[in-house]
Automatic annotation (TrEMBL):
<dbReference type="InterPro" id="IPR004812">
    <property type="entry name" value="Efflux_drug-R_Bcr/CmlA"/>
</dbReference>
<feature type="transmembrane region" description="Helical">
    <location>
        <begin position="316"/>
        <end position="339"/>
    </location>
</feature>
<keyword id="KW-1133">Transmembrane helix</keyword>
<keyword id="KW-0813">Transport</keyword>
<feature type="transmembrane region" description="Helical">
    <location>
        <begin position="147"/>
        <end position="167"/>
    </location>
</feature>
<feature type="domain" description="Major facilitator superfamily (MFS) profile">
    <location>
        <begin position="17"/>
        <end position="403"/>
    </location>
</feature>
<comment type="similarity">
    <text>Belongs to the major facilitator superfamily. Bcr/CmlA family.</text>
</comment>
<feature type="transmembrane region" description="Helical">
    <location>
        <begin position="378"/>
        <end position="399"/>
    </location>
</feature>
<feature type="transmembrane region" description="Helical">
    <location>
        <begin position="84"/>
        <end position="102"/>
    </location>
</feature>
<dbReference type="Pfam" id="PF07690">
    <property type="entry name" value="MFS_1"/>
</dbReference>
<feature type="transmembrane region" description="Helical">
    <location>
        <begin position="114"/>
        <end position="135"/>
    </location>
</feature>
<keyword id="KW-0472">Membrane</keyword>
<feature type="transmembrane region" description="Helical">
    <location>
        <begin position="259"/>
        <end position="277"/>
    </location>
</feature>
<feature type="transmembrane region" description="Helical">
    <location>
        <begin position="173"/>
        <end position="193"/>
    </location>
</feature>
<dbReference type="InterPro" id="IPR036259">
    <property type="entry name" value="MFS_trans_sf"/>
</dbReference>
<feature type="transmembrane region" description="Helical">
    <location>
        <begin position="54"/>
        <end position="72"/>
    </location>
</feature>
<dbReference type="GO" id="GO:0005886">
    <property type="term" value="C:plasma membrane"/>
</dbReference>
Amino acid sequence: MTTLTHPGDALSRSSRVLYVVVLGALVALGPFTIDLYLPAFPVVAEEFAGSETLIQLTLTATMIGFGLGQLVVGPWSDTVGRRLPLILATTVHVGASLGVAFSPDITWLLVFRVLQGVGASGGGVVAMATVRDLFGGQPLVRMLSRLALVTSLAPILAPVIGSQLLVLLDWRGLFLALAAYGVLVLVLASTLITETLPPERRRVRGHSTMAQRYRAVLSDRVFIGVALIAGLMFSGLFAYLSASSFLFQDVYGFDAQQYGILFAVNSIGLALSSQVASRLMRRFAPARILAVSLPIMALAGVTAAAAAALDLGLGPVVVGTFVFLSCAGLSFPCIQVTALAPHGAEAGTAAALLGAINFGVASLSAPLIGIFGTESAIPMGLVMAGALTLATLLLWIVVRPLRARRIDDESAELAVAAH
């Protein structure tokens, strides 16, 4: 059997590290855009005299923009290459960040938050597609695990950093900092990332038009299943993120810095588990790992809700969310590998659909929390538990983990599960 080779196999170790750093910065742009100002929610609500539900809609608006932007940037990058869509989208992000910083009212804030999401979408899509352009097999697993670390960790670290910046800046200053970060990412990507999709690879027979690329991805039952599962996981994650600022500061009496420390503690488990995933995928099919992690996440959500309902105090709520986030770190690399490995010819489109479904489904959770309130952890825990219970059912009905194949270097171009 002939071993498959990929362009990234020729990269030196230092070059791979450089790609991880720069692509990680691109991936982090989206989560930082969404979550950096979570600790400032109460302050923004006070300045604009808005309800918690209305302020949480600014989170939803960004996720909607992020999802829609990916649907444009991903297929476009399969057609014209990775660099141009990335540069233009990131430029939009910088402009929108400045717009948010100077928004005179909540309406303009919502408009610019949507545009911020659209602009930030370029980084995540292009980073994922670039990795798939360069790697296959176990190298693909390792690289996606590194990016999944950023994907999982950035939403947790963003409020930590935001809470510390609030010591020095007001909430508008957070968005000036985001604009500066966007400029930095734009410079790094423009100077250090080469084009990974040369013209001759942009027109593959049967995959050359946007319609053909979408058809190839959307006809993949396993892709659809894991994308919906990822969306439900993000729903649980964003239920926590959208509720936690009000819950821990207003209900449990944390200040902004203590709230940030709590996120830092949660990030430890998430970071470690995301790297454990790449090692586990050497021995087990990604879908079989999900068969263990998803039910545990559902149980963690039940634990948080039950602890609040029975008035058991802060401890069980913190433990439940820590377990939930740790299992999320374990699961995200498995989802990305399962979704992208069979779709090298339309990597941008696959990455775009994965991200759009993720954030499209997840955008429903923030309003749910707003509707049911943040006076206790019960709504948050129930959304987490319900989303992951549904994700577990989808795994067994659609993805069918018992038929899944292990990823190895010689089967990278095959579907990772039986179709």
